[in-house]
## 1
Amino acid sequence: QAVAGSEAPARRGGPRRPARGALSEAMGANKVVQKSKEAKMKAAMAGGKSKKKKWSKGKVKEKLANMVMFDKATYDKMMKEIPKAKLITPSVVSERLKVNGSVARAAIRHLEEKNLIVHVGEKHAAQLIYTRKIGGEGE
């Protein structure tokens, strides 16, 4: 009987709790906050142990070991191949001959002085665009 007596107040209190829960849900989900405190505690405790977000290193561009001066072989290759290319820019020359950009620009100026290549369009200080020379007229 004592056990039944102790259960009776719990039953009386039982119907009131959902009413409070309904009221708190209408006001702003107070019940959810109370319920998640333990979950938050567990998450906080586990947060230190769990894997931290690792930043990706990103794509590492391989270092180019381009020459800073022409040697005899590269100079001969430049004189032979570059005037035959349709598009001649410092980047194309640099890529093909494995030379620095400044060396490639100097090579283009050298070829232009020798009249082996012609400038395309208006001359621009930054973007040097040339093409091969065909019978006195450029493409």
## 2
Amino acid sequence: GPMRLAYRNAQNVLEDVVDHDGGDRRLDGVDAMDTLAAYKDVAQLVVDRDAKKQRYRDACKLYPKDDKLPRGAWPGSTDWLAVSRSNELYVKHVETSFMFVKREEFRLVGTWEAKPMEEYDS
């Protein structure tokens, strides 16, 4: 998804900058001030990459793990749902039980029906 792609792109940018052969030449240490500036830039790239990685990991915890269920957000909300091919809507429910063991399941919350737009034009 887009979060994984953003994380991988940030990782690739970081790798390109620190690459010994084609990366940022300021990291060679020829000029102390340039090297310090390059360290700052690399540190910012690491912070950016780590933030995107954390967003990706957090999203992995929220998205359904069953690839058979199409995923998406509730209309007008950021809460995630899964829609089955049999027109059933499921929400992810996470329950923390004794000893902080988390159990997650998808709970049926309803069904849906799609009608062509022509039926509403009158």
## 3
Amino acid sequence: PKHRGMDVAWVATHLHSLMVELGYAQYAAQGGDWGGMICSRIAYRFPQHCVALHLNFCVPVSMDWYGKLKVAVGLLFMSSEEWAAVKSTMYFLKYETAYQQIQGTKPQSLAFGLNDSPVGLLA
């Protein structure tokens, strides 16, 4: 972009405008990573047009003190199935997010490994 101000809201507005200009009165949106944030904004701002939303990267919103209290109290009443889901999520975060960690801290190091060989890229 040549100008400052291109953020999630800006992209969401422009993608919605594009869909309308293409002739779609209603449409579905799907997003992951940045697309998850952008598509969420589209669905929130244009619900009469974006009639379905699918996300594979969900971003939690921050909670006020009341929201945090509800979560804390809710922990006391979780079923064994819910606790199993929490444990599974914690395991995933600990052992299956290395790519995300390096992407967030040393992306250039990862780029060299991915682009140095076809095998690195396939991995």
## 4
Amino acid sequence: RAPQWLSALERLETRLARAHVEARKVQQRESSDEVLQRARAVGTSFGRALEKVIDGTPGCTAGALTLEEELTEFATAAAKGLCGSGTVLPAQDATSAAADLFALFGSVEGYARYLKDEVHVPCADMKLNGG
């Protein structure tokens, strides 16, 4: 009876050790430094993407969108998990971050309105071609 009891305790200890390692990994992923690093990566990615949008083809209206239309398309793609960037920004994190951002403003439209009216993003109502 004692060997079975010891064997059960060893299995329990192994499971607890694995759970402890997993909890440490979660803690590291969710540390403030890690969250800040991911937010910076998102900002850098957004900045690079914005440059491509702004550098569009002059005079070309094919695919031209207003800022709100572009944000709506982005929100749709993010919700489908299509906006990750490898291990730097997993698609699930991008989906969650986009949803959180738009929720802060009530909707995608609310965020677009904020960018237009408060931040004064130039040409927000103009259809631009992102190339």
